[in-house]
Amino acid sequence: MTLLSARTARKFTVDGITINVPTMDEAISSIVSAVQQGQTFSVCTLNLDHVVHLSSRDDFRHAYRRARFVTADGFPIVVLGRLAKVPIRRTTGADLVEPICEEASRRGLSIFLLGSDDATLAESSNRLCERFPGLQIAGTYSPPRGFDPYAPEADEAIERVRASKARICFLALGSPKQEIFATRCLDRIPGTGLLCIGASLDFIAGTQVRAPRFAQQFGLEWLWRAMLNPKRLTPRYARCVAALPRLLANTIPQIIDARMGTLRWRQ
Questions:
Q1: Domain with residues 16-210, CATH architecture
Q2: What are the sequence ranges of the domains in the chain?
Q3: Handedness of CA 20, 13, 177, 230 (dihedral sign)
Q4: Whole-model pTM over 0.85
Q5: For 68-212, where are the alpha helices, taking DSSP H only?
Q6: Contact 202, 228 (CB under 8 A)
Q7: Using only C-alpha atoms, what is the Rg of the chain?
Q8: What pLDDT digit, counting tens, does each position of 7-63 carry?
Q9: Across-strand partners of 168?
Q10: CA-based nearest residue to 131, from 98, 94, 95
């Protein structure tokens, strides 16, 4: 194996979780291909808040370990990946929804929207269908407040998705609920791809405003969100900042390995 191909093959691991689709294009092509093959899988987008939960919740870590595709959501994760010479680009759940819907409309792949509230689901459905003519929305469902991924209400949600025969299900339940719920779905909804997308449907419907493009590009989306909702989000981001030293320390071996040109996957 050449040095170039070894670098291309290099994977970046964060707290035991591997980013295996480092770019948006790879994520879209991998997801669409898996859906067309009738596979059952989940997609998670790793950020610092998730790293915090990974250290304290075994069920959340299990959800990540069962995910077929993992992208880098958080900007610090992207920076650390690049220091380890892995060409990672930030790919959030919000980034994936519209490109996946575009491909679904072209290929006749039906989708299901689960989460948020009824008004947001209705508006996001209308807007997606307007943007992507021919998009088939097999169903929508807004679980009651305080949704518990282990409760009977989750069983009802699973049954609705299964009965719809949707090929793609977007889960807008918030983390870690959506990832844990997706794992439960893997064993009960065959032939469906489950994408964890957070507040993406609210952005599409206009019920929440996403950070300006420049803030997204320069890794400042967290600051924008904290300014809009400081009481709820400031403690979360404080925990994320506190997790950075440990994350950096755990990543140093990968960075050193990459910088020294060690080839771990020599053939």
A1: 3-Layer(aba) Sandwich (3.40)
A2: 16-210
A3: negative
A4: yes
A5: 75-83, 93-107, 118-131, 152-164, 177-186, 200-205
A6: no
A7: 18
A8: 445 789 999 999 999 999 999 999 999 999 999 999 999 999 999 999 899 999 999
A9: 111, 193
A10: 98
